[in-house]
From TrEMBL:
Swiss-Prot/TrEMBL cofactor(s): pyridoxal 5'-phosphate
Protein's GO biological process: 'de novo' L-methionine biosynthetic process; isopentenyl diphosphate biosynthetic process, mevalonate pathway; sterol biosynthetic process; transsulfuration
Protein name: Cystathionine beta-lyase
Keyword set includes Disulfide bond: no
One Pfam family in the UniProt entry: GHMP_kinases_N
Biological classification of the source: Eukaryota, Fungi, Dikarya, Basidiomycota, Pucciniomycotina
EC number(s) given by UniProt: 2.7.1.36, 4.4.1.13
Ranges annotated as biased composition (Polar residues): 1-13
Coiled-coil ranges per UniProt: none
Pathway: Amino-acid biosynthesis; L-methionine biosynthesis via de novo pathway; L-homocysteine from L-cystathionine: step 1/1; Isoprenoid biosynthesis; isopentenyl diphosphate biosynthesis via mevalonate pathway; isopentenyl diphosphate from (R)-mevalonate: step 1/3
Length: 886
């Protein structure tokens, strides 16, 4: 093992040369202070132990071809445990990989085997579903012989990992990523996945197979990975004349475990192979620059002919902008489809300069069919499930002249009948791809399946924030719970190539031609929302051009949020649907109407577009409780958060979390490296609250921005207030969870905290005269109640605690007095169900006779859903049987 500190090469041979020549001018010292660039670092091998100089001043690291070392107490005793040639290599690899520790072993698979030995029986590992065949084979071995559970998931969509990560029955201790994948060149967002995994499973290790990129193009440790390995057989050595694997990490504990395994099993790299690999690494940047430049030409050539080409250097490659963020180049492996396996075999067989070979990374160009070669060990059924085309051809580009490579490929395509000449004039004949019969058939089938999606109804609750609104945006804990006023969405399938959004609350309806939507603008970051990142602004801007202007300008945000989610979740299916959304919640009044709307569109889309499986159908509302798993609710919540951000700007996430999961919670947002948290609270259920809508309209986005501005301008005023609000939330939480506290102490404590929190909110500038009027009225005798604003303030709603001994007649009088003052009241309990779902096509009561006596499935009483007054929606929903809830 070798350790470097600092990780990047800042000590240079020039330093010693300059000082021995007495070079100490300002310019030369400035120049020397700069770390070497990558190619220089590759070419310059530092001595891991400068106190131990080579006795003859050898310019190349000697091969210490010895099994044993004489004497006792020296640095080396036995080559299995350590060898100077290997130490030089490992030190060099660590330096170019931004790593503190590096290890060299006998192959890439040997490296993975060493890493897998960090796992224990009963552990779960998440791995991609487009993995190198050898990694897949080793994972199967672990599953069968070592009691390790393996989950193959689509790592291009980080949200698909959440259900397994958050499942308490799965002890996920490792996540194995490859990006770009081999051979489909799919992109996994190492940074997003690492952050997500570390948040949900801090003890899990993120392992990245970086062979396709090499440390020259991508250094995953810089993006949050814990362990990185490369098959050194590929780009690091570059000549296909040795087998090697390297492992890098920064964590001391992992380094110790890895060193122990290598020493115990004895698969450290031999001195001779260490020498060869060290020699190869010196030219890594030089080789890859050439290989990558030619790859761009080859990819473009095939793409222009009309083949489906997988290469992250091509515009439009899915995940390209994530890849560009993680890596500094597209690499030198690409793959393309011919849509005909036999045709692919003919192309591969006809190539001359492109050698038929497994592996990649060599200076010579290679061609292969992964399903027959590198990935043949994966069961054909599994290959199909993982969308690995049997006809796929992989090209690994070498350093030959690009013209020769393209000539040879062209000759092979022509000989195999994959292309034909359309114009012989010019220096290169004009060719076009010959379409296969299978392709034409497939296209017909695709057209037929469009629009065939489930119809269903979903609902989501609003919320009341008892303590901590606004402060929660800045990392303070909020105490909040769901209320029994909900938003409802009906998703209906249609067949006319259009999608409609109907918003009766805004007297608004918009219909778009699906084909005319800007599909080419759906970026991969839009398809994989992350809690800490903002929605893709350029996509939002493009969608803003597509919205239909209604009477109320606020509807624009609702439309953009809808289109953003519809397009990001549609994939290639693009179903024709109508979404009708109705709210029993007052809109823009502090009860989380935007979050409930966001959860409705998120859940309706995730289920109708088959991203989540429908829960088993139930016959009564009671049986439907917990029919939706918390894992599914987390996925719905993640997408709802994106919609909420589009509507709100910078929400904390508390509203959508309550609207998704329901119940009552203590919620803390993660800010600036401080961990967030989410805890369920149960003490709310029996407490009655009165909500009073002042009817003064306001906008959460503006109010939240106002507090943020104030925090920036007057930190000495705002920061102590935030601290006090944290203390209020902490005390409220204690009081709600302390089973020894008497009921009367509990209620009087909450009342005191309500008064304190309200005055802090007023100091933050989000109070309003109308809210003070409600506070004063409810505080008057004979009522004497305690009230605070709830939600964003500036108008909107106030919340009042109703003590247990408050009589019904007093409550009626109070409500009348508030109504006289022009306010609207709602009595609510806190802590009911999260989002719910009613699948209509599987509901037996929904089958009726259609035209010509045929049976037809319609939504249950959809007409009543559309026609009911807002206040009647809850009664309508209760009347419908078969709801499934979180
Ligand atoms: N039923 C609905 N149909 C369409 N859009 C809606 C609906 N309900 C809410 N919205 C969207 O949410 C916006 C209201 O969000 P806003 O954050 O201002 O209020 P709120 O969520 O009710 O209050 P708070 O965030 O303080 O709890 C509306 O302007 C609209 O864009
Ligand atoms: C004002 C605020 O704290 C609550 C809005 O309901 C904003 C947020 O948390 O997103």
């Amino acid at each position: 093992m070798a350790s470097t500190d600092p990780p990047s090469g800042t000590s240079t041979p020039l330093d010693s040369a300059a000082s021995s020549l007495g070079g100490n001018s300002l310019t030369s010292s400035l120049l020397r202070a700069k770390p070497y660039r990558f190619a220089t670092q590759c070419a310059t091998v530092d001595n891991p132990d400068p106190s131990h100089k080579d006795q003859h001043g050898s310019s190349s690291v000697p091969i210490y071809q010895t099994a044993t070392f004489k004497g006792m107490g020296g640095q080396y005793d036995y080559t299995r445990s350590g060898n100077p040639t290997r130490s030089h290599l490992e030190h060099h690899i660590a330096k170019i990989s931004s790593a503190r520790h590096a290890f060299a072993v006998t192959s890439g698979m040997g490296a993975l085997d060493v890493i897998f030995r960090l796992l224990k029986p009963g552990d779960s590992i998440i791995a991609g579903n487009d993995l190198y065949g050898g990694s897949n084979r080793l994972l199967t071995y672990l599953k069968v012989h070592n009691g390790i559970k393996v989950h193959h998931l689509d790592t291009t969509k980080p949200s698909t990992l959440l259900p397994v990560l958050t499942n308490p029955e799965q002890n996920v201790t490792m996540v194995l990523l490859e990006t770009p994948t081999n051979p489909l060149l799919q992109i996994a967002d190492i940074a997003a996945i690492s952050a997500m995994v570390h948040q949900h499973k801090p003890e899990a290790i993120i392992v990245v197979d970086n062979t396709m990129m090499s440390p020259y193009l991508q250094r995953p440790l810089e993006h949050g990975a814990d362990v990185v390995y490369d098959s050194g057989t590929k780009y690091l050595s570059g000549h296909h004349d040795l087998m090697a694997g390297v492992i890098c990490c920064n964590r001391e504990d992992l380094a110790k475990g890895i060193a122990f395994t290598i020493n115990s099993i004895g698969n450290g790299l031999s001195p001779f192979d260490s020498f060869l690999l060290l020699r190869g690494v010196k030219t890594l940047a030089l080789r890859l620059d050439k290989q990558q430049a030619t790859s761009h030409l080859v990819a473009k050539y095939l793409h222009d002919l009309g083949f489906k080409v997988n290469y992250p250097g091509l515009p439009g490659h899915p995940g390209k902008e994530i890849h560009d963020r993680l890596a500094s180049g597209a690499g030198a492996v690409l793959s393309f489809e011919t849509k005909d396996k036999a045709l692919s075999e003919r192309i591969v067989g006809a190539a001359r300069l492109w050698g038929i070979s497994v592996s990649f990374g060599c200076i010579n160009s290679l061609i292969s069919m992964p399903c027959l070669m590198s990935h043949a060990s994966i069961d054909p059924k599994v290959r199909k499930e993982r969308n690995l085309p049997e006809d796929l051809i992989r090209l690994c580009v070498g350093i030959e002249d690009p013209e020769d490579l393209i000539d040879d490929l062209e000759a092979a395509l022509l000989e195999a009948g994959a292309v034909r000449v359309v114009d012989e004039a010019g220096s290169r004949a004009k060719l076009e791809r010959v379409r296969t019969a299978e392709e034409t058939e497939e296209e017909d089938v695709e057209v037929k399946v469009e629009g065939e999606v489930e119809s269903l109804i979903v609902s989501a609750p609003g919320k009341v924030i008892l303590f901590g609104e606004h402060a929660v945006v800045h990392g303070i804990t909020a105490i909040a719970g769901s209320v029994d006023l909900r938003c409802y969405a009906l998703a209906e399938s249609r067949q006319d190539g259009k999608v409609s959004l109907v918003l009766p609350d805004f007297d608004f309806e918009a219909t778009w031609d699906i084909a005319s939507l800007p599909w080419d603008q759906v970026t991969s970051s839009a398809k994989a929302p992350r809690p800490e990142s903002t929605p893709d602004q350029s996509f939002v801007d493009v969608l803003a051009q597509k919205v239909v202007r209604g009477v109320d300008p606020k509807v624009v945000q609702s439309e953009i949020a809808f289109l953003y989610l519809y397009m990001s979740l549609s994939e290639h299916k693009r179903p024709s649907q109508t979404f009708t959304i109705r709210s029993a919640l007052p809109i823009g009044a502090g009860l989380g109407s935007s979050a409930a709307y966001s959860v409705c569109i998120s859940s309706a889309l995730l289920y109708t577009h088959s991203h989540l499986p429908l829960p088993p159908s139930t016959s009564s509302a009671h049986e439907g409780r917990r029919a939706i798993t918390p894992e599914q609710a987390n996925v719905v919540n993640a997408w709802a958060f994106t919609a909420e951000k589009i509507i709100h700007g910078t929400p904390s996430g508390v509203d959508n979390t309550v609207a998704s999961l329901g119940g009552a919670i203590a919620f803390t947002k993660a800010v600036k490296g401080r961990e967030g948290g989410l805890d369920g609270l149960h003490g709310f259920k029996s407490i009655r609250f009165l909500l009073t809508d002042t009817k003064v309209s306001r906008d959460t986005k503006t109010l939240v921005a106002g507090v943020a501005r104030r925090k920036l301008e007057e930190p000495d005023l705002v920061n102590p207030i935030l601290k006090s609000i944290q203390a209020i939330s902490d005390e409220a939480r204690r009081c709600l969870t302390d089973s020894d506290m008497s009921r009367s102490t509990q209620l009087s404590t909450l009342e005191k905290l309500i008064d304190e929190n309200h005055s802090h909110l007023v100091s933050l500038g989000v109070g309003h005269a109308s809210l003070e009027a409600v506070k004063a009225k409810t505080g008057e005798q004979p009522w004497g109640l305690h009230t605070k604003l709830t939600g964003a303030g500036g108008g909107g709603c106030a919340v009042t605690i109703i003590p247990d001994d408050f009589s019904e007649s007093s409550l009626t009088d109070l409500k009348a007095a508030l109504a006289d003052a022009g306010f609207e009241t709602y009595e609510t309990s806190v802590g009911g169900s999260g989002f719910g779902l009613l699948s209509t096509s599987r509901n037996a009561s929904s089958v009726v006779e259609g035209e010509g006596g045929a049976e037809k499935t319609v939504l249950p009483d959809v007409a009543r859903f559309r026609g009911a007054a807002a206040a009647e929606l809850a009664a309508w929903a209760e009347g419908e049987k078969g709801w499934a809830f979180v």
